[in-house]
């Protein structure tokens, strides 16, 4: 007897979304732009790529300069999940999922995309502008920022975005030396832990405050089980613990849960039979 194939399932596999069979450490995201009418691309990103690296890649597709780019992560319904504001963090820190969208907000009034004419990204001229040439431009994001700060010394990108969205901007209060002391009290060096967002697991290596180079308050140093961190246990030249590069992170205590969090088995979701 010959093998009977489910032709409908086979067709769905062949014609299915491009995210099928992709590596577990990549994610397929839609991309939209504040100056363009439609989502103009679908790109696959490595979750270990820094937000700075994501911006560099998007620059070549959108024509928006990295320094003029603000990124937001939206879910499938269009609800904002996070502002991708920390250029040094890996994309995976924000826990994006297939089908989510990165929205580019272009703050450069002289951007190539202004007016919505740049719908065909193949027409984008890709080049590196020198610092001297950039400084000669009359309208740049750098000068836009200087003008804003001259008008309002408390101006920030977050404040600008809130005003553009019709929201009331409430600045965060500066933390004191005992910031999150109550949460840090229950975290001890050697504890297994899970870090949110992303449910990243690891071991607590440091707990303390008055950390040189970091804002006031308590911090927790974590050595991750996987290379999803952003340092080797040192920040701005100050060492708080030691681990392999890319395995360390310094976090506020509210991001760290301690308990029975063993290392994840990479094969735990695989079928028993191959």
What's the arrangement of secondary structure elements?
Layout lengths: L6 H9 L10 E8 L7 E6 L4 H12 L6 E6 L5 E4 L17 E6 L24 H6 L4 H11 L5 H8 L16 H4 L7 E4 L4 E9 L10 E6 L9 E2 L2 E2 L8 E4 L4 E3 L16
Parallel strand pairs: 1-5
Antiparallel strand pairs: 1-2, 3-4, 3-5, 6-7, 6-12, 7-8, 8-11, 9-10
Description:
The longest helix is centred in the N-terminal third of the chain and has 12 residues, at 51-62. This protein has helices at residues 7-15, 51-62, 131-136, 141-151, 157-164, 181-184, and strands at 26-33, 41-46, 69-74, 80-83, 101-106, 192-195, 200-208, 219-224, 234-235, 238-239, 248-251, 256-258. A five-stranded mixed β-sheet has the order 2-1-5-3-4, covered by helices on one side. It has a five-stranded antiparallel β-sheet with strand order 11-8-7-6-12, with no helix packed on it. 18% of the residues lie in helices and 22% in strands. With 274 residues, it is of the alpha+beta class. The chain folds into three domains: 1-116, Ubiquitin-like (UB roll); 127-171, no CATH class; 181-258, SH3 type barrels (Roll), CATH 2.30.30. A hairpin with a 4-residue loop joins strand 6 and strand 7 (200-208). The chain is built from six helices and twelve strands. The protein starts with 6 loop residues before the first helix and ends in a 16-residue tail after the last strand. Its main location: cytoplasm. It holds the Pfam family Ubiquitin_2. GO terms for molecular function: alpha-tubulin binding; microtubule plus-end binding.
Shape: globular
Rg on CA atoms, Å = 22 Å
Task: Please provide the ordered H/E string of secondary-structure elements.
Answer: HEEHEEEHHHHEEEEEEE
The name of the CATH superfamily of the largest domain reads Phosphatidylinositol 3-kinase Catalytic Subunit, Chain A, domain 1
Strand order of the largest sheet: 2-1-5-3-4
How much strand?
15-25%
CATH fold-level label of the largest domain: Ubiquitin-like (UB roll)
Give the number of DSSP strands: 12
Uncertain ranges: 1-22, 270-274
Cα separation of the termini? 23 Å
CATH class annotation of the largest domain: Alpha Beta
CATH architecture of the largest domain: Roll
Instruction: Provide the structure class.
Output: alpha+beta
Tally of distinct domains: 3
- Helix content bin: 10-25%
Task: Give a short account of the largest sheet.
Answer: 5 strands, mixed
Q: Which whole number gives the mean pLDDT?
A: 82
Helical region count?
Answer: 6
């Amino acid at each position: 007897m010959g093998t009977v194939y489910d032709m409908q399932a086979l067709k769905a596999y062949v014609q299915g979304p491009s995210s099928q069979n992709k590596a577990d450490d990549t994610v397929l995201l839609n991309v939209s732009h504040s100056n363009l009418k439609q989502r103009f691309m679908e790109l696959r990103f490595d979750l270990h790529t820094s937000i700075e690296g994501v911006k560099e890649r998007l620059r070549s597709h959108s024509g928006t300069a990295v320094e003029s780019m603000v990124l937001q992560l939206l879910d499938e319904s269009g609800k904002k999940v996070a502002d991708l504001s920390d250029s040094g963090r890996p994309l995976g820190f924000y826990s994006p999922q297939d089908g989510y969208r990165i929205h580019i907000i272009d703050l450069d009034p002289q951007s190539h995309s202004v007016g919505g004419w740049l719908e065909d990204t193949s027409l984008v001229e890709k080049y590196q502008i020198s610092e001297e040439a950039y400084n000669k431009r009359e309208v740049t994001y750098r000068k836009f920022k200087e003008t804003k700060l001259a008008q309002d010394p408390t101006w920030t990108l977050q404040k600008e975005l809130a005003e553009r969205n019709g929201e009331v901007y409430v600045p965060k209060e500066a933390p004191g030396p005992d910031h999150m002391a109550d949460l840090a009290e229950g975290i001890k060096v050697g504890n297994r832990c899970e870090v949110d967002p992303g449910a990243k697991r690891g071991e607590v290596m440091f707990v303390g405050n008055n950390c040189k180079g970091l804002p006031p308050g308590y911090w927790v140093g974590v050595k991750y089980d996987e290379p999803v961190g952003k340092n080797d246990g040192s920040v701005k030249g100050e060492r708080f613990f030691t681990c392999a590069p890319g395995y360390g992170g310094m976090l506020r205590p509210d991001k760290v849960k301690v308990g029975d969090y063993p290392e994840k088995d990479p094969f735990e979701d695989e079928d028993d039979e191959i």
